[in-house]
Amino acid sequence: MATPTPASAPPRPAPAGLIARALSGDVAWSFRHSWSARISALVLLILFAAAILAPWLANQNPYDIGELSLFDSELPPAWAEGGDARYWLGTDTLARDVYSSILYGLRLSLIVGFASVALAAVVGISLGLLGGFVGGIVDAAIMRFADVLLSFPTILVALLVNGIMRGALPPAQHQQAAIWVLILAIGLTNWVQYARTVRSSTMVERNKEYVQAARINGVSRAGIMVSHILPNVLGPVLVIATINLGMAVLTEATLSFLGVGMPATQPSLGTLIRIGNEYLFSGIWWVVIFPSVVLVALVLAVNLLGDWLRDALNPKLR
């Protein structure tokens, strides 16, 4: 008598929920097997947490004159000769704690970076969708304007926009509006990459069957662009936004280093580097070295994470 074959094991149920599907996807697998992505994400997590928790982690508020004492100015780091244990990374010429200034400056740099990337993404995605879907003279006008912007260096365009914005404001409001001027200057400079990428993807998607079906069902052009095409072109946009965050922070630091960014009373990382560079040859090296190290770590981590994300979302590399 033949022995019955054992019943096959029931199929394993697919993970339920958005988080479970994300954790079991190709991108999550790639992240778990990429040491550079894990280290970059850890560095960014530490820097983001330090910026958010700056009021609680800092030894002083560097923007509050009442907490400063000129007797503590130009102190070296705590481990150096003449250092003070209260100031781990030393103080600058205004007696501001360098460690506290880095935390608050990192917060300002990240605010400018995220806000300018969001502005550039909104403008670029909107113009790219419009040009790629409508075509014709609208597409030609948008792309020719984008080509003109690409023919100039990014920092030069940012300086031009920054100068126009500052010229339109009264001199008394320059310091108060400095962060908004920086966001507009950087955001209105970096939208071209989003527009060109979204336009090319939209020109491919607009001829597919689901778009034709939406047209037959009477969906408006705006509805097709927002509800049908936009979700299918966001993959490359996410990669561009990640890499552009590092570029935006670096652009803000460059503008602040040139003296047209954040004022000395509200220093970002670039402003701290500019202030420290003025006294570098006087032996006060710590004021410029430590903010520079934090800026390099931030930009490098963002770029490495963006490179990993680009490879992880590329189906040809799977």
TrEMBL record:
* Keywords, alphabetical: Cell membrane, Membrane, Transmembrane, Transmembrane helix, Transport
Cited CDD domains: TM_PBP2
Protein family according to the UniProt entry: Belongs to the binding-protein-dependent transport system permease family.
Top-level taxonomic group: Bacteria
User: Record's InterPro entries?
Assistant: BP-dependent_transpt_permease, MetI-like, MetI-like_sf, OppC_N
Q: Which Pfam families match?
A: BPD_transp_1, OppC_N
Residues that span the membrane, as ranges: 39-58, 110-138, 145-165, 177-194, 229-250, 284-306
- Domain ABC transmembrane type-1 spans what residues? 106-306
Keyword Transport assigned: yes
Instruction: Tell me how this protein sits in the membrane.
Output: Multi-pass membrane protein
Protein location = Cell membrane
Q: What is this protein called?
A: ABC transporter permease
GO CC annotation terms, alphabetical: plasma membrane
